[in-house]
Amino acid sequence: MESFVINMGAYDVHVRRKRVKNINFRIGPNGEALMSVPLHVSRTEAERIARERATWFERALARAQARKCNAPARWSTGEKMSVWGRPVTLRVLDPSEAASPCELSGDELLVRDGPNASWRASEVENWLQQELMAYLGEILPDRELAIGRMPTHISIRRMKTRWGSCTPKTARIRINTALAECPHACANTVLVHELCHLIVHNHGPQFQALMDLHCPGWRVTQRWLDEHPPRTL
Ligand SMILES: [Zn+2]
After folding, report:
1. 4 alpha carbon to ligand 1 midpoint, in Å?
2. Where exactly are the structural domains of the chain?
3. Residues 21-55: b if buried by 16+ CB within 10 A, e if exposed
């Protein structure tokens, strides 16, 4: 997954190289500046284009920020989130009424209150990691068997621009916590993608054939992931 970040001082522009003809600028669902460029555009060229667009980005970001001001504060009751692609609303519970630090109950994600917002953020984050680990643990044996490769270690962490990554030499795989917020097909696709990298290190035709074999429909999911950059904390 080809992406990189351009630092513009007050904000970052998240750039993705895609099979597109035109350059595209937009503000993502979490108020992040996004740009997609055709595959042949170099990093230097992308930086030049982003700087030419600085005024547009600044205005669009200010508009998105103004909209956000009407939304509840982060990690507070009423905040809208997503769990496995399903919208849920956060509800902060008094420690005396909370059965566990964080749990899903219908359309609400209940989190036990703590000293501050970042404490609640990390409770939610831990819960998302556990959810994702449980799901990966469920599907991993089948995928390993089919693909014929086994990672030495899988770690789950919040990453800014990548959904997953893999070090073929050590067979270690890293998966983005944000996948627990997306439909299950996304975590599956990223897991299969990284497992296939244990056989083919690039994204060439051989890699794509492996993906077609082990994850039919991956192209649709891949497009969805490209259009929804990982939410950052
Ligand atoms: Zn890859």
Report:
1. 14
2. 3-68, 80-126, 128-227
3. eebeeebeeeebbbbbbeeebeeeebbebbeebee
Structure token digits, residue 22: 């035109």
Query: Measuring CA to CA, how many Å separate 221 from each of 14, 52, 226?
Result: 19, 32, 9
Asked whether the beta carbons of 65 and 56 are under 8 A apart, the reply is no
* Ligand 1 midpoint to CA 194 (Å): 6
Output the CA 73–ligand 1 centroid distance in Å.
35
Whole-model pTM over 0.85? no
Using the 8-state DSSP alphabet, how is residue 79 labeled? -
- pLDDT number for residue 29: 78
CATH tag for 128-227 (out of 2.40.128.110, 3.30.2010.10, 3.30.450.20, 3.30.720.10): 3.30.2010.10
Q: Tell me what pLDDT residue 84 has.
A: 97
Q: List, run by run, the mean pLDDT of 10-residue segments along the chain (233 residues).
A: 86 91 88 91 93 92 80 86 96 93 97 92 96 98 96 95 94 97 97 97 96 96 89 80
